[in-house]
Amino acid sequence: xxxxxxxxxxxxxxxxxxxxxxxxxxxxxxxxxxxxxxxxxxxxxxxxxxxxxxxxxxxxxxxxxxxxxxxxxxxxxxxxxxxxxxxxxxxxxxxxxxxxxxxxxxxxxxxxxxxxxxxxxxxxxxxxxxxxxxxxxxxxxxxxxxxxxxxxxxxxxxxxxxxxxxxxxxxxxxxxxxxxxxxxxxxxxxxxxxxxxxxxxxxxxxxxxxxxxxxxxxxxxxxxxxxxxxxxxxxxxxxxxxxxxxxxxxxxxxxxxxxxxxxxxxxxxxxxxxxxxxxxxxxxxxxxxxxxxxxxxxxxxxxxxxxxxxxxxxxxxxxxxxxxxxxxxxxxxxxxxxxxxxxxxxxxxxxxxxxxxxxxxxxxxxxxxxxxxxxxxxxxxxxxxxxxxxxxxxxxxxxxxxxxxxxxxxxxxxxxxxxxxxxxxxxxxxxxxxxxxxxxx
Length: 441
Known about the structure:
The protein is an all-alpha fold.
């Protein structure tokens, strides 16, 4: 291998993050040495960094074919499968890599990363600590240990881990980003912003730090700060616990509604709790997109948002604008003594559509996002049909259209709204499930 200049240059380029050039050198090397399993493994790692997933998986499997007993080959396959969101297969591959080379700290760190992606915080911590037992200064191992500790609610230990990692390597962008998220968990958003800023200075492309910076900016709003603590708390729970909380809240609201209907005397005591729950639920659904909208309208804040967040802000902003305009027309009419209740229908429709529309961009690209977009489109069609029908009714009443046309249009409104209103509620539960899906790539 010492006499393989292409391979040596490829290792140097890969270490520098110049993966396309590393790929070129590796392919040239493999022309001369097609059976070099290690070169196939490094090629897989270079390809996955360029998101050439199919080619990367083939290279990793070629590496195993040529060197089945090499831990690096199985490590490369695990790295590719993890990037393709095939977590169970990735876990099996990294387990084989660790069996073949139990003293490789990178393999243990990758195992921790795979478990973190699966939401298994205790397993993440165990794998990270095994990594650190092999190499106490391993950067990824320390960061993953801190991330797992935060999720497990052990914030003091997490802070100590990150502080020690920063002391050893003060110029590590990922460590600064993790310190920022730890401080954000503690409600110290101003200090968190400093670490996110430093992380982005060291690595301007770091999404983890960029997302943290956005959340730290939003946390300057006291209301959003409260919601952020709720969001972070929910993220620590398993998917079963999250669903249980959502369903208990929904069923509790329905139960209170039944109590108020059965005995109106209870309504003044029950309705405030129902209103508070509904307002909180709507806030949790719309707080992030509305905050992104505020940043989008800011001349500097918009540059912190990624393409999905900007698209979400535009679509939600459009819904809010149409709902506000309809409400303003209705209110102006009321002030003039001739308010038309029909203007409340588009206000309700477009205001409610902001919920499923914003949820589209919380789902990962692929079938989850396409499914949510189809649901939002169907709800939009039902809601807009009700709005158009109401407008036709108004024109018929005003004498601009035949009365029989107005009667036909009025028959559309009720079924359309019967589909629209429950659909909005169901779409939010569907959105919560779709947001947790990780499609294979």
